[in-house]
Amino acid sequence: MIASKTEMFNQILLRLGEKRVSSWEGTEDRVVVLRGFFNHAVDEVLKEYLWICATSRAVLAQLPDTNLTQYDYVYQLPSDCITVQSLIDVYGETYADVEDVYLIEGRRLYTDLESAGIKYTTNNVEVTELDTYVAEAIVLKVAAKSAFTITKDITLEADMYVQYKEALNIAKSADGIERINRTVSQELWTD
Q1: How crowded is residue 88: how many other Cβ atoms within 10 Å of its Cβ?
Q2: What is the structure's pLDDT at 93?
Q3: Are residues 117 and 170 in the same domain?
Q4: Which of 5, 47, 71, 148 would give a disulfide with 24, using CB separation of 3.0 to 4.6 Å?
Q5: CB burial of residue 18 (10 Å; 0-12, 13-18, 19+)
Q6: pTM of this structure
Q7: Domain end: 122, 145, 170, which one?
Q8: pLDDT bracket for residue 96 (50, 70, 90)
Q9: Which of 81, 99, 122 is the C-terminal boundary of a domain?
């Protein structure tokens, strides 16, 4: 588990063969470069999969907008939403992966539900809340993006991308196993 953003930045720098830093908020060139790539890389990794550690739920605010779709209602998506996983009516019925139930355009969700919520992937996750494998994938993604800028070594950049892809697959497998274990555990409890 990553204890802080500074620790995460140091993990990235160590992968690049660089010295550690005392703070992720510093003005040192390497830190500025990492900060420049960090948020975008986090969003990319979180968008790759429906991670348990980055899942949230919210009741949506209905908008008074003119609705030119086939749906009756329009809602504002939360500002931290990067992927809608499923639509939830406020009475508990969940609609997942049903194309006719909702439409997303821009930051708006259209549906026939009078009161709607969503289960979604959020990018508002502290590094301390990330799963170990997801954090490792993020470290390697940022290392890959920043490798050439920091080290001028194109081979290192390519190597970091290969390591990132491997870490991403491991993270997906671990998350999938956890998801299955939760489902089996809940079913056994119900039985």
Answers
A1: 22
A2: 66
A3: no
A4: 5
A5: middle
A6: 0.86
A7: 122
A8: low
A9: 122
Can you give the three-state secondary structure of 47-108, one letter per residue? Answer: HCCCCHHHEEEEECEECCCCCCCCCCEEEECCCCEEEEEEEEECCCCEECCCCCCEEEECCE
User: Rounded to 10 degrees, what is the CA torsion of 63, 64, 69, 75?
Assistant: 10
| Range(s) of the domain holding residue 135 | 5-50+131-190
The terminus-to-terminus CA distance of the chain in angstroms comes to 34
Main-chain dihedrals φ then ψ at residue 125, nearest 5 degrees: -120, 125
Number of domains in the chain: 2
Question: How far is it, in rounded angstroms, from Cα 7 to Cα 25?
Answer: 12
Residues 114 and 143 both lie in one domain? no
Q: Can you say whether the dihedral through the CA atoms of 144, 150, 153, 156 is positive or negative?
A: negative
pLDDT tens per residue, range 49-65 = 999 999 999 999 999 87
What is the token pair recorded at 77? 């998506």
